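Researcher: Here's the sequence for the chain we discussed earlier.
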Amino acid sequence: LQRERYRRRLELLRAALAEAGVDCPPPAGTFSLWVPAPGGDAWGLARWLARTAGAVVSPGEFYGEAGAGHVRVAVVQPDDQLALVAQRLAGAPAPSGDVPDAGGPHGETA
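Model: Thanks. This is the structure I predict for it:
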């Protein structure tokens, strides 16, 4: 039951990301997607996902050098929240790899 729930969530977000122009491989036994960032800009992809879909993800470099250039998307939120993210990604323009910086961690600027 639990395994099926996470598989369904992973597929939902993989399909939504692909529709938005961001392809990612299926995970190898985890409940996280490791999404390659366009142009290798993980921070830019993280900002794009936050602004476009309201999804907060982690730049892969948080998890070591091997994660650089990726974002980690954990599918641990309830199904309705993930469906909302997928809905927001539907028809969204693909990230370009040069998403403008929003300032500091809380959006402030100097």
